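#lab-general

N.A. 3:47 PM
ok so I finally got the sequence cleaned up, no stray characters, all 932 residues accounted for. can someone with queue access submit it? mine expired

B.Y. 3:52 PM
send it over

N.A. 3:53 PM
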Amino acid sequence: MFNRTKLCSSMLVAFGGGVAAFSPMAQAQTAPSDTPTAERVEVTGSRVRRIDAEAAAPVQIVNREQIQQSGVVSIGALLQQLPSIAGAATNPQVNNGGGDGASTISLRGLGSERTLVLLDGRRLGAGFDVNSIPLNLIERVDILKQGAGATYGSDAIGGVVNIITQKNFTGFNVAAQVGAAGKGDAETKNLELTFGTSTDKGHVMAGLNFNKQGLVRSGDRKFSAQALYWYTYDGAVNVLKLGSSSTPQGRLSLPASTVLPNGKTAAEQFGCAGSTIRLTRKTGAAGTSLDDFRCYTGADSYDYQPQNLALTPQERVSLFVDASHQVTDAVELFATVLHNRTTSGFQIAPLPMVASNDGWATSANNPFGISFGSTAAGGAVGTNMQVRPVDLGKRQSNNATTLSQMTLGARGAITDSSWTWDLAYTYQGYRQNSGVSGYINGGLLQNALTNDAFNIFNVTADNPTGQASLVGLTPFSVGYTNFTSTNERTLDLVLTGDLYKWTPGTIQAAVGATYSKANLSVKVDELTRYVPPTYNSCLLAAETCGGDTSGTQNVREVFGELFIPLLKDMPGAKALNLTLGSRLSSYDSFGSTTNSSAKLEYRPVADLMVRGTASQVFRAPTISDRFGATQGTFPTFIDPCASATGNEPGYDRACQYIPPNSGYDQDNSQILGFLGGNKNLKPEQGKVFTLGFVYDSSLIKGFSVTADYWNDAISSGDPTTIAAACLNTPSDTFCNRIKRDPGTGQIDNIDLSNLNAGYIKTNGIDVSLRYMLPPTAYGRFRLGLDTSYTKSFKYDLGNGVEQEAAGTLDPSYGNFAKWRVSGNVQWGMGPFGVLWTSRYISSTNISNSKDSNFCSTATCQTILVRQGGVTYHDLALSYSMDKTKTKVIVGVNNVGDKQPPLAYQFQLNGNVDVQTYDTIGRRWFVRLEQAF
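B.Y. 4:20 PM
back already:
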């Protein structure tokens, strides 16, 4: 949930290569050996239009056949399975912290904000929801696995995803697909209607796509049915079925020295250990006397997990039109229009009411004779109250998201020259209405508590007192609706052509300019609007509080690319080409930045190409990064002050109000944090170097191999790091972000707004193999293998401590399994086809903190959990009837019903890494296509 927007430097090394595009699996790009025409094309990663499609950039392809045989109803599910994807991009399996149905792409684990998404080479923006693009519009997807700042501008640090649409489609095609999980849930329905016609003057293609994905309840899967926690205490390891300390019976906190109405201290009355006494109401008790309460234990915690979802429901409707018309021999008009509407929503457990966070307090008219809760609302110092009125129902959302994308333009040739031009205007609009239910109006609640309208110490329906409290509390149960809208308008011009002919070939160039203006507007519900500087003070729970915001950003860019053939058909040099590029970007927010690149391609012989790239990349802060309103969130937190000695240089600031060696312990594992923008953010800057080779064998027909080595660097932060950095290397950058309660020293909140700090350094190797076997009497076989090995993923969150995430499920950046492998075997004979696909994710470790600033030498880098390796198998059978133009595909995904490895509650709710592994299990699908 923490926005990673930091200053960094980046280096990427990739032995990148293309291989033959014969497999439906993801594959690297190459030019076919029998190209029928010498038409110049623009390939992903370059602006220069060349006859040979194979260039200095490693590009993978997901083609249309693979999409159809995968059984997916949205493209994100397929793209996130590629071996080059890592980290923690969102998807519809993310329930708590998700729920809008989106899927984003994180190449190399560098984050979706550093992976640029294009539609036919035009920007859709980092973090774009690829599920918004309907499947029947897509011809293929190109994945550029290296930074490309000089070519595409901001955000192309981890790489580029270029979605290529169908062109010159003729006829009418209907496709319908249904499917479900083996357990009967996760039902899918998909309908595609595509119409197209073309003449020698142009074409028109139009389509409709409707798809629906059913939900999966966490309680219906064994791995997620209960909240499982992994604890270590005094060297012993315990797996406990625990949950939240905000329980239906409630949890009260008060100082042990508190004198009660009977004259006893709280410690004497209840016998609980510690300087802070924590109590809960006895089951069935009225909550009207001291005898109705006892010491709280971990066994009293509330298991919220069965109320959650393992897969959020979603429904999408898309309409699109793609058209072109040749006005003259030299001028062509073109247009692409896309409109998508997605509805989805999360479902999480009933609201935990936490007085200190939400800003309310009880009256003193209770068995304890004191007010519990927020001191600002009159609560006694050192007290708190947590309660969960489960009978009021779950928290749920209904998100309606609309995307409108339109490109209008003209292209053509400059008379009597090799030069072509392309002028286009693009509009992209995004709107989201997010309605959420299941909250309590805090203003009305506080008034009722002050006037003792009901007994907040008992809000369960198991006795008359609780039933009466629920009657009093129910009118305050409300929902809220927030509105977000963004739009971006872009005008771009690109010219390409020949500059100079000489012996090795023709020097070619591409030059262009771009102007764009983006707008952001966020309107929050009156119930959730905070009054600064108390950002957790609104009429609902602190996690909902936010504010209206708006902002604009203007960008002007000019760029150029030069392709220079240096040698051709020479001894030891079949070809040697150099490509130079540069882009000047001017932002109204921070000024200008220039990013350049140099690419070299060398063919010693026809079968082998060696290539390298040196380039600069950057990521400009977005409008949300700069103007995003402060908003509450509840990240996991390990308080370094619990083990601090008092001798640390920043103790007085990091552990304010906590006497050294006082026995302080952290009250809650989740604390209130505030996300938000920073108008003073500067861009991330990086450098990229690639070196690679491609071998496409002429000795073994149909066989090719490619290998990639890469190395990169970027950054982020979390609340634990902020507190630890303040404790050990105190500075205003970190210490000013921490606010503690003056009475208890417990964290009140931590500022998690964006800042420029930290870095990532990562490296690894990719290997791809392809082999198309010669035809046999038993059909034709094709084999494919893609492998990505992450050797290292080191990062510093800004506190000067470098940590290693490779081979781990990292709390800041997500899953970095060292090995990710995708392989396939395809067989075809006449109308029949079979595709078997396997996907392997190696084991990962979940460790306690590796930061010696806040863990002892004895426990640092201790592996708490080892997630085993996982292999998924998918099978698809197809039958094509040429006479009737009918095709049937029947498939089973996750054939072995492989369950995700347990990660317990270390990261997102669900006990597993929902951003990496399959939470659905075995599922089937049937697809029918009919062409007319």
